[in-house]
Amino acid sequence: MSFGSYKKAFPGVRIALLCAGAAVTVFVGCSIFSHNAVNDDPAGTGQHKSWKQYGGSADQSRYLDFKQITKKNVTQLKVAWSYPTNDNSGYLFNPIIIGNVMYVLAKNHSLVALDAITGKEIWIHAGLNSITWKGINYWESKDKTDRRLIFTLGGTLQEINAVTGKSILTFGDNGVVDLKLGTIRDPSTFNRIQPTTPGVVFENFYMIGSSPGENIFSGPGDLRAYDIVTGKMAWVFHTIPLPGEYGYKTWPKDAYKYIGGTNTWGEISVDEKRGIAYFPTGSPTYDYYGGDRIGDNLFSDCIIAIDIHTGKRLWHFQTVHHDLWDYDLCTAPQLITVTHNGKRVDAVAVASKTSFLYVFDRVTGEPLWPIVERPVPKSDVPGEVASPTQPIPTVLPPFGRQTLTADDVSPYMKPEDQASWKKRIAAGGKGMFQPILLNGETFGLPGAVGGANFGNTAAMPDKGLVFIIGQDHPSVYSIKKYVETRSPNVADQTARAKIIYIQNCQGCHGVERTGAAGPNIVTAGTKLTLESLKILLSTGKGQMPGFPHLNETDIADIHVFLGGQPETARRGGRQQPTDNVKIEGPVVASGGAPVKETADRNAGMRDYPTGVEHPTNRYISDNGLLFPYIVAPPWSFIVAYDLNKGTIKWKVPLGIDKDVEKQGGKPSGLTGGGQRKGMIVTATGILFATSKDGHLYAFDVDNGNTLWSIALPAGTEGQPAMYEVNGRQYLIVCATTVASLGKGNNGPKPKGSYVIYALPDKK
Predict the structure, then answer these.
(1) Highest-pLDDT range among 390-404, 673-687, 744-758
(2) Cα distances (angstroms) measured from residue 732 to each of 96, 126, 470, 638, 683
(3) Contact predicate 23/36, CB 8 Å
């Protein structure tokens, strides 16, 4: 009997039983009740049988008190079942599992509800083509009669009924909350706003950041909370302060009118006991030049503790003053309890792109170990005033390399390439916090995607252990005077797009766009909405770095150049999938809630507001990410910190580079685009992690030894998840991308699927 049949059979009370394997699920009204999901935490321990949020739980620890899979039997893990995505999309999705129902993104960007034991489809909401790629969140009322899936789509916040799969039209304005409304700036002055990472749920609050882009005049990075039932904004925190607000004097007087960024695009962690949210923020715009934002620039590059009920700042710490290197904080702050100076202290630890780990008292914001201001070099760029000092932790050792010399050049390059790079490094500016040289080369290590990135932290909270995926990925920066290319001589959209393509894309995708080091993208615009392309070019994916310097018009031009529709570009990218894929299965809805098109959806300012003082010239840099392999391996690794002692417990490479292996090298880890992966930690002392090499690994938390590994059917960019149903423990991995085998060498194009592992069923 189908799900729809149950609803017809019981139109009144609507109660029915559905046997799924050994599980019994009761549908009551518009709720799903499972004997495993009614109360996932009867003892109030804070642990969960389900994976209710993007990071598993509100604290983002990725820690589960599961004991079935142990160090002794982990080698027995096998594929329990898998679910094919039935398309060629490389999803970055983290599934949500509630009781015995799983929610995944598949089938041409459709949200699919599955039986978490068998993989059988329950419902499909098709055509969510501009949904935040990385995941969704879940909320339920106290009596569990109201259950919602929360997500962003095409610059809006929306909800879907977790039982029926249909949009909740009582939320917001006919099912939609426009994320451009209620920010510090007029919506007509910016375009992009949708976050690339899901927010976090606490009580009836849904807190989110944003991903407004990183070019000059990008949108603001306001932090916001919404009422989950009504969609009304509960509060907003201005990361670029208004006159009279704390931090306003760390900017030019009119900065809030034109500066963007300073946003939380990574993961937000919540102390549920205290009602405190910890937001990590990124750099202000423009990333690599700050002549129009002289000052320390609060609240960029900060960890900010906010009272969730009021939206008020409790404390903050800025890890980089006047950021000129894109040293965002984007990993989940880890909430831990440690023994410090003979006392038990609730702390929060946040890992940075600089490869520093900062640790604070969770309530007061006091550092557990001294952080000192140390002098750093000046900038030679006209109008730039680099901060004279930067905050440096003094006790905790960094988890990655922070210096670069000619001796650090990789021995796995051709001799002539080694010689060339050694000469360039010797001649250029180098080292962390070295301002980018005008018309020269600056070598940053870590670079803009070095250190830790989103998804890269986990913890065993009560034991004070924090785990970080890090990478030594250098940036090769160069800054020069900006020249406007959108002159009357380059008025044709195709001509403009060709210039942008040659400068940014041709090296990997070839002159004809048919692929070189990268894939064929001739018709990519027909498969990606404009909004999706904005996200892709902002964050990167797989081997491809992000291109945050591209502005809204640049991206719209490229979208059309790759086959997108001009009319869609002008409307802001709300097109439905254009490849006319017929979705097979129990489709209950399509496209999300209806969105009203507004005149400002493709808005954005091209110059400073009238009357605002600003530099005469602008300066621009590429992101310098195209040379990850110039330093010797290991390139990526997992580090375990024991924060009871303030030491690194162990450090091991993550992944195997086949090129290095062929040349007799040791395990090297992989880089090139970022190890933006996730980890899961269990009470039995196992740390599960995925890698760019297309493998799933299990490490011993005590020493970092590899307990088990298995090749996935494809690479993975999504976060793994773990859940338990009827006493059986499952591990799920989104395997939908191309695996990296080494420098310029990728695996075959995959047939994407979600793969679920478990111990053999004893029945």
Answers:
(1) 390-404
(2) 10, 22, 23, 20, 18
(3) yes
Q: Please give the angle made by the CA atoms of 611, 614 and 617, to the nearest 5 degrees.
A: 130
| Helices vs strands, H then E, count in the chain | 9, 45
Cβ(389)–Cβ(375) under 8 Å?
A: yes
Alpha-carbon distance of 523 to 536, in angstroms, equals 15
The widest CA-to-CA distance across the chain, in whole angstroms, is 78
Single out the residue of 61, 77, 79, 70 nearest to residue 700, CA to CA. 70
Task: Express each pLDDT in 509-539 by its tens digit.
Answer: 766 676 555 567 877 777 676 766 776 776 5
Q: Which residue has the tokens 């001009």?
A: 566
* Assigned CATH topology for domain 487-581: Cytochrome Bc1 Complex; Chain D, domain 2 (1.10.760)
Distance of CA 82 to the CA centre of its chain: 25
Are residues 279 and 263 in contact, defined by beta-carbon separation less than 8 angstroms?
no
Which tokens belong to 399?
């988890």
What is the rounded distance in angstroms from the CA atom of residue 532 to the CA atom of residue 114?
25
Q: For residue range 335-381, what is the model confidence (pLDDT) as tens digits? A: 999 999 999 999 999 999 999 999 999 999 999 999 999 999 999 99
Q: How far apart are CA 66 and CA 723, in angstroms?
A: 9
d(CA 304, CA 574): 33
* Residues 593, 594, 599: CA angle, nearest 5 degrees: 130
DSSP string, 99-166: TTEEEEEETTTEEEEEETTT--EEEEEE--TTB-TTB-EEEE-TTS--EEEEEEETTEEEEEETTT--
Residue 452 contacts residue 327 (beta carbons within 8 Å): no
Nearest to 111 by CA among 60, 155, 148: 148
- Could you state, in order of their start, the residue ranges of all structural domains in the chain? 3-34, 331-482+617-676, 487-581
CA distances from 459 to 199, 397, 462, 472, 655 (A): 19, 18, 9, 22, 21
- Which one-letter amino acid corresponds to residue 212? P
User: Comparing C-alpha atoms, which of 721, 695, 536 is closest to residue 135?
Assistant: 721
**pTM here?**
0.88
Number of Cβ within 10 Å of residue 22's Cβ equals 13
Would the CA dihedral through 401, 404, 408, 410 be positive or negative? positive
How many whole angstroms separate alpha carbon 270 and alpha carbon 283? 22
> What's the pLDDT tens digit per position in 173-214?
999 999 999 999 998 888 888 998 999 999 999 999 999 888
**208 Cβ contact list (under 8 Å, min separation 6):** 152, 157, 179, 195, 198, 199, 200, 223, 224, 225, 226, 264, 268
Q: Are 335 and 348 in contact, with CB atoms under 8 Å apart?
A: yes
- Give the DSSP H or E segment for 5: helix 3-9
